[in-house]
Amino acid sequence: MGNGAAGECDVEQWRHIVAVAAGNVHSARNTGKSHSVGLRADGTVVAAGGNGDGQCDVREWSGVTAVAAGWRRTLGLYTDGSVVAVGRNAEGQCEIGEWREVVALGCGDWHSVGVRADGTAVAVGNNRGGQCDVGGWRALAGIAAGYLHTVGLGRDGRVVAAGRRGAAECAVDGWTDIVAVSAGSYHTVGLTAGGGVLAVGDNGYGQCDVRGWRDVVAIAAGSTHTLGLRADGTVLAAGNDADGQCDVGALSPDRST
To answer: Which pLDDT band, with edges at 50, 70 and 90, does 22 fall under?
Structure first.
């Protein structure tokens, strides 16, 4: 049930999970089924959901320290800094065989990105929006990929972006004191050192209405929604709730007793 079973939410049997990743960044009628990936404490990986391109064929992986998932694709980062990929490769997004000394990963729809130990970035896959033009980036601490854009977090807390010229989701030049970034289809979210949240890009569903959030310690951007985890364990959500993806009240601890 963990690898390739129908139903991307069939994860009840997963145990000892230390990190998760969700595929299918961009919502469209032709994207097919989503999939979910879990990294166990022992470095093995489990996956559930759509497996039409083999994106859930991770059963043999071991020694993995991080995972990332995009549209019909899964990446795994090994302890030696090399990367493994399974799934759709029609746009070259799985051509990561030469990557070395990688410390962070990100998956967009059609492109894969990574940060090397020296702070430089690598990217492969579709580049029709310029989302893979990251060769000049330096001193990175993190990275995230959306539909047609890539966001890099600098060690100095500043943020850079590559993608469609003039795109709103790339308007991050003025961001400072950022400690984490996440990318949705057409929006970008940043977590400040003080626990606040910034967002730019498409706001058609209210996914960028996060300016009032406080005491946030982690963020995640979906296709058209945004989540924030507070230090007290409660969860915030903004954006598209058509499938109940913003119904996060049940995820927060009951503090009535």
So the answer is: confident
